[in-house]
Structure formats: C-alpha cells, structure tokens
Amino acid sequence: MSLLEIKNLHAKVGEKEIIKDFSLTINAGEVHAIMGPNGSGKSTLSNIIAGHPAYTVTSGSIIFKGKDVLSMTPDERANSGIFLLFQYPTEIPGVSTAVFLKTALNAKYQFLKKEPLDAVGFMKRLNTRAKALNVSAEMLKRPVNVGFSGGEKKKMEVFQMAFLEPDFCILDEMDSGLDIDALRLLSAGVNVLREPNRSFLLITHYQRLLEYIEPDFIHIMVDGKIVESGDKSLALKLEEKGYECYK
Amino acid sequence: MSAINNLALMGFDGELSVRSLNEPVSISVPAGCSFEAHLLQFDGTIDLSVSLMGADAKCAVQAVYLAADETHSVLNLNIVHNAPKTFSEQKIKGVLTDRAHMDFKGIIRIPTESQKCEGAQNHRALLLSDKALVRATPELEIFADDVKCAHGSAIAALDEKQLFYLMSRGIDETQAYHLLVQAFIMDLTPEMWMPYIEQWMAEHV
Ligand SMILES: Nc1ncnc2c1ncn2[C@@H]1O[C@H](COP(=O)(O)OP(=O)(O)OP(=O)(O)O)[C@@H](O)[C@H]1O
Ligand SMILES: [Mg+2]
Q: Which tens digits make up the pLDDT trace of B87-99?
C-alpha cells in the first residue's frame, strides 16, 4: 500500500484555483522532489496536505496510510505522521521551544495511545536531537522561532522534525537562505532520518539540495499540476533549460 | 459565574499584600515612594485611584482581565500626578470570550503645575469570540507642558498563523489556544496566579 496518495486534487483560495488536477503517489521509504516556478502552487499543496484552513479543496482526494486526510484536523494529520517543514516558519512569542515540543510530543503519544515520556526521557530525546543538529540549549529556551535568523529557523524546523519522528516529511524549501555549512549539516540531519518506512517530499528550486539529499523521483510542477516526472537527471535538464518548455 | 473572585496584590516599595477590590480603592503615594499593583479581574467593577503626592513618587499598575460568558466588567484606573517629577506606568492586558463586555477606562491626569512627569499606559486585548466586546477609553488630561506621556491600545483576534503552526505540530485547537492565551498575558501575571488563570482557561477557552 502506498503511504500517500493524492488523486486529481483541485483546490482554490477565495475564487482563485491554484491546484489543478494534481496527482501523486508516494510509497514508504521513497524520496520525491518537486521543482517548479514561483507561484506554481508548491507551498499551497504542502499547506493543503497539512490542513491549512485558507484553502478549499473542491475535488479530488488525499489518502495517507489508508485514511482520508481531508476530513482530519491539522493536529490529527500531524499526529498520524505528517510533518510540514515551513518555507516561512511562524514566530510565536511567549511560548518556549521546549514547552512547545513537550506539548506536541505528549499530544502525539496520547493520540497513539502510548505512555507519555517522563521528564528525563523527554530531556534525553531533546538533547540527543539538538546535539546532532548543533542546536544550543539557549536556542531551546527561546520562544518558538522568535528572533532566529532565516537559516536558524530552518535549522529549528529540521530539529523539530527529527524530534517528532514523523513518517512523512514535506520539506518546503528547506535549503532557501542556508549557507553551505548549514545546508550540509541539515541535509545530513535529513539523511539520517531516511528509513524504509519514512518518506519525504522535497520542494526546492535548486539542483544542489538534491545532490545532498538524493531523491528517487523528481516532478516538475507548473500551474498547479505535475507536467513531467522522472529520475534525478531531470533536475540537470531543468538546470540547463529552465521551465520555458513547459509553459 | 457565581462569586466575583478578582485578585489584587499591592503595596509600597516591593512589600506587596493581598487586597480586596470590592470597594473603590484610593492610594496616596508620598514623595520618593513606589507603589505597585497587580490585578486579576474576572468580573464586576474595579476602581483604583492613585495620587502621586511628591517628587519621585512612582506607580506601576499591571492588570489582567479575563472575561467570559455574559459578564459585563468595568476597570477604572485613575492616576493623578499631583506633584512635579512623578512617574506612572499602566500595563493592561485582557482576554475576552463568549459575549463578555469590558469597559476599560484609564485616566492619566497631569495638572499644570506638575512639570517633568512621565505617564505611560498600554492596553491590549485579545478577542476569542466575535460576540465579545471591549470599549477602551484612555483619558489623558495633560495640562503641564514639560511632560512625557505615552499611551496605546490594541484589540485583536488570535493570530491564525500561530494557531495553524501549533496545530501542524500535533497540538489540538484547545491546547493551542491555551498556549497562545497564556503567552499573551504571561508577562503581567505573578506566578502564584497561574492556577487561577489555568482554571479560567479550562472552563472558558
Ligand atoms: N492565502 C493565499 N491568498 C491568496 N493567494 C494565495 C494564497 N496562497 C497562495 N496564493 C497564490 O497561489 C499561487 C501559488 O502560491 P504558492 O505559494 O503555492 O507558490 P509556490 O509554488 O510555493 O511559489 P514559490 O516557489 O515562490 O515558493 C500564487 O499565485 C500565490 O499568490
Ligand atoms: Mg513556496
């Protein structure tokens, strides 16, 4: 059974249709990449999968682990294993990162009917993941995303992902705004999460990210749908020719 | 809601004690003294007047109101700078839900002879329901010319982006609201009042 199946999805914001007959199937363990021009609907698609209330799905379906995603609230989707790494993470003043992550993890364990981690177990998990990604204790004390640089925000997103251990990760432009060292560090952080039953959807504008995190498939998205799919070599072709031939 | 259980901690130069707010409260602050008040209002009327009587008298008021159901609450803060070189600061934050109404009136009065005074007032309210209503009326009666006075008031709904971000990490809507409401009022709430606030949130948010 596929992990995620999107079929003939149409969605709009207000009266404007943005996703136009989008279909994609992702199996467990696969890494897919979507590339596409600005405004083609990549972030919109990501947000719809995560359950953002601004978008209305007019037809089509999204099935995750055999369940209808579109009838779930955003928190149910997350607790079922969907994680969206945001292109622009939101700042939340007054809520410390540690408290936020503890609340999120407890919610997930409760959803899965598992015993919550005790304080020691939580700190251990937090510190292990933080260390691997060079996230300092001081960063964990700060309010969620507040005052972080663009690159640091992305790092915190990857850290949250590693901490929450989702089964399906959407990375919406993880690489934008990262310096070379950070790109290497975060890509390594993603690669260690690659497992036979965890899948990824990478959204990027740059072939370079795909050298660090090698995808199994690449899809070109233009004007709300996939216009071509292929293997890694598609990114190179794109680098050369751009999107002109798809328009 | 049954009995009104508004809370107040106030006193001079850091010596705070619990004080009843069932009657209007009037405080005189002598020269060189600092008066401080922390209020937590759930319902009813609170009237607090503070007169700053001599040079270097200071007053800091921090008030939080949490209004739910069909309550109609009134908060009157009245600060009078009766002497030159006196200082006041009011910080007020409120959270409203259901059909609650709030009337907040904050007066800063600086008569002509009270030069070199500073007064500040900042009010922010969070509306969790579109049926809730806040009326904020700052009254600045400033007659002296060599003074500094600042005031601001902002009334807003909960930030949808923040709500979605929390939920996208698995936190349900109710808990996300609790985190955001708590974050909003945290800086004006003494630690010992957190249980009252949590109880209010559990019942109304
Ligand atoms: N909430 C919204 N309100 C109005 N228009 C929106 C909204 N969200 C997306 N759009 C519009 O939908 C289109 C697709 O936007 P989206 O952010 O999905 O593009 P993208 O492919 O992620 O682009 P980029 O590569 O620049 O990140 C754009 O024209 C955008 O302006
Ligand atoms: Mg985008």
A: 999 999 999 999 9
> CA of B159, closest CA in chain A: separation in Å?
9
Can you list the alpha helix ranges (DSSP code H) found in A25-118?
42-50, 74-80, 97-111
CATH number of the domain bearing residue A240: 3.40.50.300
Inter-chain CB proximity B175 and A107 less than 8 Å: yes
Average the pLDDT over each of A238-247, B29-38, B191-200 and give the range with the smallest value. Answer: A238-247
Q: Which ligand is nearest to the CA of A221?
A: 1
In whole angstroms, what is the distance from residue B176 CA to residue B180 CA? 6
Neighbour tally for B190: CB within 10 Å: 13
Strands (E), chain A: 4-13, 16-26, 31-35, 56-64, 67-68, 82-85, 92-96, 143-144, 168-172, 199-203, 217-222, 225-230
- Domain range for A192: 2-246
Phi, psi dihedral angles at A111 (to 5 degrees): -60, -40
Rounded distance from Cα A183 to ligand 1 centre (Å): 25
CA dihedral sign, ordered A143, A149, A150, A152: negative
Q: Are A79 and B184 inside 8 Å of each other by CB?
A: no
- Total number of domains constituting chain A: 1
Q: What is the ipTM of this complex?
A: 0.96
Measured between CB atoms, which of B162, B170, B182 is closest to A107? B170
The answer to whether the CB of A225 is under 6 A from ligand 1 is no
Give me ligand 2 centre to Cα A133, in Å. Answer: 24
Residue B3 scores a pLDDT above 80: no
Of residues A94, A143, A160, nearest to B169 (C-beta): A160
Q: Pick the residue whose CA is nearest to atom 2 on ligand 1.
A: A13
Residue A107 in contact with residue A136, Cβ under 8 Å? no
Q: What are the structure tokens assigned to A207, written together? A: 């072939």
**pLDDT at residue B4, as a whole number:** 60
Confidence of residue B152 (pLDDT cuts 50, 70, 90): very high
Quote the minimal CA–CA distance from B191 to chain A in Å: 14
DSSP A195: B
